[in-house]
């Protein structure tokens, strides 16, 4: 039997002074908005604050969480339980990519839906670039022809 949709989140610590990630991250599950969970975690972060770096929704959230914990087990913090990890930047991006593999909303979206609204803008931009390039070439040819005629008139006075 499937469970209800829940969030699998990646919450991390940020330095309150520099606003930079510290490198400690929690992979967990919540049925509420992950920002609410981040506020709950805030109490243990003296001098730092909790930030939601990534979230997905899944009807199998607890299974996804366990798979992520096992996949990134070598990065688990000692004494931090199985939910806390220390990721370097490349591993951080790998975690986000791995989470997206389990995001049911992400997987169910038809490929055309993601690009449907981008294509008209891209076509319009391409058309504008082609028109601009065309007029740029015409202008360049006009200027060059004018310079060549001016040079020719100076070299050959009888052409005036």
Gyration radius (Cα, Å) is 29 Å
Described by its quaternary structure, the protein is single chain
Biggest beta sheet summary: 4 strands, antiparallel
Count of distinct strands: 4
Task: Kindly name the structural category.
Answer: alpha+beta
Secondary-structure element series: EEHEHEHHHH
Determine the fraction of residues in helical runs and give it as a percent range: 40-55%
Shape: elongated
Which range does the strand content fall in? 15-25%
Distance between the termini: 93 Å
- Averaged pLDDT, please? 79
Query: Taking strands numbered 1, 2, ... along the chain, how are they ordered across the largest sheet?
Result: 3-1-2-4
How would you describe the overall organization of this protein?
Strands 3-1-2-4 form a 4-stranded antiparallel β-sheet. The chain is of the alpha+beta class and 160 residues long. 51% of the residues lie in helices and 21% in strands. The termini are far apart. Residues 109-123 have low confidence and may be disordered. The protein has helices at residues 34-41, 61-71, 89-102, 104-108, 111-116, 118-155, and strands spanning 6-15, 21-30, 48-58, 84-86. It is built from 6 helices and 4 strands; from the N terminus they run E-E-H-E-H-E-H-H-H-H.
Notable traits:
single chain; 160 residues; alpha+beta; 4-stranded antiparallel β-sheet; 6 helices; 4 strands; 51% helix; elongated
Brief summary:
The chain has helices at 34-41, 61-71, 89-102, 104-108, 111-116, 118-155, and strands spanning 6-15, 21-30, 48-58, 84-86. It has 160 residues and is an alpha+beta fold. It has a four-stranded antiparallel β-sheet.
């Amino acid at each position: 039997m499937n469970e209800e949709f829940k969030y699998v989140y990646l919450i991390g610590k940020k330095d309150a002074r520099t606003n930079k990630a510290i490198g400690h991250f929690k992979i967990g599950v919540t049925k509420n908005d992950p920002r609410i969970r981040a506020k709950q975690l805030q109490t243990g972060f003296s001098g730092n604050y909790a930030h939601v770096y990534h979230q997905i929704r899944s009807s199998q959230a607890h299974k996804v969480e366990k798979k992520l914990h096992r996949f990134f087990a070598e990065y688990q913090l000692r004494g931090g339980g199985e939910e806390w990890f220390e990721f370097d930047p490349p591993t951080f991006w790998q975690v986000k990519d791995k989470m997206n593999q389990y995001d049911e909303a992400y997987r169910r979206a038809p490929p055309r839906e993601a690009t449907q609204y981008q294509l008209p803008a891209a076509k319009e931009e391409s058309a504008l670039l082609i028109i601009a390039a065309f007029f740029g070439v015409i202008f360049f040819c006009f200027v060059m022809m004018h310079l060549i005629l001016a040079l020719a008139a100076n070299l050959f006075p009888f052409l005036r």
